[in-house]
Amino acid sequence: MIKRLSFTFALLTSLVSMSCKEINHSPVEEGKLENGVYSSTYFNMSMNVPESWEVDTMGKIERKTPAEEADKKDTVLVANLLTIYREGEQEDFKPNLSIMAESKTLYPQLKKESDYLEHTQKQYANLDPITSDIKKKVLTNDIECYTFDLAMTIQDMTIKQTHFALKKEDFYIDITITYQSDKQKEELKAIVNSLTLN
């Protein structure tokens, strides 16, 4: 149970209150991992994946399927693009990074990435986390995004996260890093800073 906590927290924002299922046909493709680089053709993005890191999830595409729209074309609402992890210094924890894309149509009331992160913060409210203010940040490759940190204690284990949000195509992209130590955080931030968008 504890061994999976890091993945649970990294993917909590994907637990929106709707019915989803896997699909096979969509313009949002699975992405690929070649020579230590993850890339997505649909989002025109790439990111380095260190050789020592393991891939837990890649290209899990989901959608909302209302019964009255069952005969309509597939519409991607949530795509778990990538989750990677490294065996941690402590046996029960694996620092990890996840990339999730959510369609802007899910949140018509939101206007920008900072609004999306405010919504994300609220998803953690029942876990009583300590969260930082949302700030604008520029990554190494001059990519602008919004970010916030959180910390929470579950079963005597303190978990920390940093969320990075940006808009691409018709989606909000949330890159989440989950860690315990400052060393793990810096290692994960270096991966995030390898992000490129075309």
Automatic annotation (TrEMBL):
PROSITE patterns: PROKAR_LIPOPROTEIN. It comes from the Bacteria. This is Lipoprotein.
